[in-house]
Amino acid sequence: MPGEPWWVERVSRRLLPGALDALDLGGLWRLSEGCRFVRDNVEERLLSSDFERAPGCEAVWRAFLARAAEVHLALETEGAVVAAQRTGGPVGARLFRESWESLGFTVNPQDSGTPADDHLDGLYRLPRHSDGPQVHTDASPNLSSRAERISDFLTVTQPGPKDVVIDLGSGSGKLALTVSASAATRVVGIELGERFVEVARATASSLSLPDVRFVHGDVRDADLSAGTIFFLYHPFRGQVAKDVAAQLGALARRKPIVVYAGGPLDGFGEHFLGQVSAGALALSERRGEFGQVLVLRSA
Fold it and tell me: Between 3.30.565.10, 3.40.50.150, 2.60.40.1120, 3.30.499.10, what CATH number should domain 99-298 receive?
């Protein structure tokens, strides 16, 4: 239709597929994300002019709203089914981990996500890009941890009942939630963005995960003494990264710890390597396609 709004084709071709019961949790999440994209990018105050300019598109929009509501309900229902299948204890945690890892980490042709990420993001109902206000000049944009990186973290660190995993800069909680559900261990997420903490707490409650908690605050002010394993996915840089590296270096002089830090060397990783030079931490290995993950242990 000449002159029709941009959203008509997207709604007609991509957001109105067949029966929803044919989609798994990841598929429903992807469809929900497509609906969210349209809703976020269509200015409702301009819809009336769209309807006047292209007669017939109002019916398409109404159908889209109804379909989006169906998708949202189906996603919540399927997520509740998946959550109910997970039981507490080591066996339940192992089976949960196997369930999402088995979906694989091959990148989707449409974007940079993977089937495993689609599944986890659908379970937690997390948008893949959840930008929020910058809470500190040295804070990095909120980046949801990739499923493949979470799997690697679990394999390398092997957290157990005696461990306390601390996710420094936990964002909306994807890493902390997945580790808590996938391993019989205690997990703490520390995040400066209050809204992210609220979302993570609500998700943990909905999934009945008693051994994970989220703390709102600056990681430099937090008590890290109980931690045995630390995860960082480039949550900050500059002076904050330097201060946190020094905190972990001081803790490493007092007790055995493992630090799994992913991010660029410039402004981030260099500060952790500084603690290696100071004799507090030892570089165990570098992982990832470009060696961007530093695995460090108490020297």
Answer: 3.40.50.150
Q: Residue 246 CB: number of other CB atoms within 10 A?
A: 17
Cβ atoms of 177 and 125 within 8 Å: the answer is: no
Residues written for the chain = 299
Q: Give me the helices (H) in the chain, please.
A: 6-14, 25-41, 47-53, 57-85, 89-101, 115-124, 147-157, 174-182, 194-206, 238-252, 270-277
CA distance 4 to 57: 8
Model confidence over 276-295: pLDDT tens digits?
999 999 999 999 888 899 99
Angstrom distance (rounded) from CA 259 to CA 245 = 10
Question: Residues spanned by CATH 3.40.50.150 within the chain?
Answer: 99-298
Give yes or no for a contact between 299 and 256, defined as CB atoms under 8 angstroms apart: no
User: Across all residues in the chain, what is the average pLDDT?
Assistant: 90
Taking the C-alpha atoms of residue 236 and residue 218, their distance in angstroms, rounded to an integer, is: 11
- Answer yes or no: are the C-beta atoms of 135 and 192 closer than 8 Å: yes
pLDDT tens digits, 138-182: 555 556 789 999 999 999 999 999 999 999 999 999 999 999 999
Q: How many CA atoms lie within 13 A of 145 on its CB side?
A: 32
Q: Enumerate the β-bridge partners of residue 298.
A: 281
Name residue 26's amino acid. G
Q: pTM to 2 decimals?
A: 0.89
Q: How far apart are CA 68 and CA 74, in angstroms?
A: 10
